[in-house]
Specification:
Order of helices and strands: HHHEEHHHEEHEEH
Shape: globular
CATH class of the largest domain: Mainly Alpha
CATH architecture of the largest domain: Orthogonal Bundle
Radius of gyration: 21 Å
Number of domains: 2
Structural class: mainly alpha
Distance between the termini: 36 Å
Oligomer: single chain
Number of strands: 6
Largest sheet: 2 strands, antiparallel
Number of helices: 8
Length: 229
């Protein structure tokens, strides 16, 4: 999982060049009066791209990290047992919840429900009703309560143990819904990836966890399809 996180945050310059080369050589290799060729050549083209980064602001980052405790593409589960949940909570600055096996199963159900909701943040898609129900139940299980502070309405977790951890997650979700950042938290549009990321784009149309990894894969697939067509 750490290797995949590193890959998403590094520049895959060679892969980016291969996509850009195709766009350039379509013009370079066109014979006079003829159709453009789709055969790539060894033109050296450098295109630098930067990502604003996948992390979410404030407490919403806890939600993003929680969803990413399962690396869908590599099949790596970070919460394989109750002790793993304790360790993860401790790493994130939360009190270890001391979960039982049944609690962990419920926590994992919540995680996948959140992943489903984040997928719906692309293109204004309809949220899965079942996932909404799981998250709604978690609001009660986590004992999330509104609190009036000097800066306005806030949300806080009132429980302890597993309900306390779930409540903190749901408090972050509630606050993000109110302040408008919730719709920016998404999962990668790559069906085999589904890594959670925060969309920093001004247009809110970000689709990939990283343009250098999954975004580039999509471009390469589109390129290969164009060659077949």
């Amino acid at each position: 999982m750490l290797a995949r996180q590193s890959a998403r945050n590094s520049v895959d310059a060679q892969a980016l060049v291969s996509v850009t080369v195709f766009m350039v050589t379509k013009v370079i290799d066109a014979p006079p009066g003829g159709a453009t060729t789709k055969a790539p050549t060894t033109v050296t083209v450098a295109r630098m791209e930067t990502d604003a980064g996948p992390q979410a602001p404030g407490e919403l980052e806890l939600v993003r990290a929680f969803v990413n405790t399962l690396d869908v593409e590599d099949g790596v589960e970070a919460l394989a047992g109750p002790a793993d949940l304790d360790a993860w909570a401790r790493e994130r600055g939360c009190p270890p919840p001391g979960a039982a096996a049944a609690d962990l199963a419920r926590v994992l159900e919540l995680r996948e429900a959140l992943r489903s909701l984040l997928l719906a943040h692309h293109d204004g898609a309809a949220a899965d009703v079942g996932a909404l129900g799981v998250v709604d139940d978690a609001m009660s299980w986590g004992v999330v309560r509104p609190s009036l502070a000097a800066g306005g309405l806030t949300w806080r977790a009132a429980g302890h143990g597993v309900p306390g951890l779930v409540g903190r997650l749901m408090s972050a979700v509630s606050a993000a819904v109110v302040d408008g950042t919730w719709s920016r938290l998404k999962v990668c549009g790559n069906d085999t990836c589904r890594w959670a990321f925060y969309d920093h784009s001004r247009s809110r149309t970000g689709r990939w966890c990283s343009m250098k990894v999954c975004g580039n894969r999509a471009k390469q697939q589109k390129f290969k399809q164009a060659l077949r067509d």
